[in-house]
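ok new one. same drill as before - structure tokens go in, u give me an amino acid for every spot. 289 of them this time. try not to just spam alanines like last time pls lmao
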């Protein structure tokens, strides 16, 4: 093993991977792009391996980089936890967090409650919107942090903090046998809506929009009433709804869904702390290895 690797080098490497490029990573770290490039070069020289595949449009970790990435995250998490443990200065300020309503109501309450108890001087502003609307708000400077849905491998920037299977759900198998499949979905643009309709189109299955609702509770109610079938992350399916078997119902298989955390180039300390808490508590989701 080479001599000790400075955490700043690891932090630069993780930032380049998470932001899929040197320019965005430099903004996040508050450094020049050349400085970040130099840090990566030093890290590669120190470890004796190439960590990144560089192309004009995309930067990806090599096999050696993928192996380092998980260890680097653990080292940085421990490093930050240690620093936070002995940081007696009370955090104050406002943190603006965006998240889709379904994810916010199912997975965030406990995370935000524990953060608020630990940091009573911080005011949390949580905005719930569809993913594409959140991205627009984020790009306009209206959010410090945002949790957004994305297609695996889509190239959407951010750090994956959650992954789980998407499933078809209904009040029973009978509604899924309809010649024209009725769908209960969120308004466009919605990642899950797009995933459902595209999968059905590829499978040659006819469908229609039967009910549109922006809230998770409304979606559950419509499916319970037998108005149609919906697509949900497996962990968000209540016990009184039926997971529809793809073979029996003739519905196409669905891939996993991902939630990614994106962050503004310059974060206040309170937002940095919330980012660390979200990553630590959410990153090992139900199917995350």
């Amino acid at each position: 093993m080479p001599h000790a690797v400075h955490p700043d080098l690891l932090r630069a490497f993780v930032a380049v991977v998470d932001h899929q490029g040197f320019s965005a990573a430099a903004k996040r770290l508050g450094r020049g792009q050349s400085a970040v490039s130099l840090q990566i070069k030093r890290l590669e020289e120190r470890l004796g391996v190439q960590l990144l595949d560089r192309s004009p449009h995309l930067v990806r970790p090599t096999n050696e980089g993928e192996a380092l990435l998980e260890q680097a995250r653990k080292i940085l998490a421990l490093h930050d936890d240690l620093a936070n443990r002995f940081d007696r200065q009370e955090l104050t300020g406002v943190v603006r967090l965006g998240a889709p309503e379904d994810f916010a109501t199912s997975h965030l309450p406990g995370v935000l409650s524990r953060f608020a108890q630990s940091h009573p001087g911080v005011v949390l502003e949580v905005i719930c919107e569809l993913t594409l609307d959140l991205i627009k708000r984020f790009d306009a400077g209206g959010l410090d942090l945002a949790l957004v849905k994305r297609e695996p491998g889509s190239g959407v920037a951010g750090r994956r903090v959650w992954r789980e299977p998407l499933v078809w759900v209904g009040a029973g198998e009978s509604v899924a046998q309809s010649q024209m499949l009725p769908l209960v979905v969120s308004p466009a643009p919605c990642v899950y809506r797009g995933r459902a309709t595209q999968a059905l189109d590829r499978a040659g299955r006819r469908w229609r929009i039967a009910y549109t609702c922006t809230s998770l509770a409304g979606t559950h109610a419509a499916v319970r009433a037998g108005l149609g079938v919906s697509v949900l992350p497996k962990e968000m399916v209540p016990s009184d709804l039926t997971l529809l078997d793809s073979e029996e119902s003739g519905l196409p298989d669905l891939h996993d869904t991902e939630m990614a955390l994106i962050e503004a180039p310059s974060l206040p300390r309170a937002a940095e702390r919330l980012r660390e808490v979200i990553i630590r508590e959410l990153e090992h989701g139900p199917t995350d290895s």
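The chain has eleven helices and eleven strands. and btw The chain has three domains: 7-85, 93-163+262-282, 165-257.
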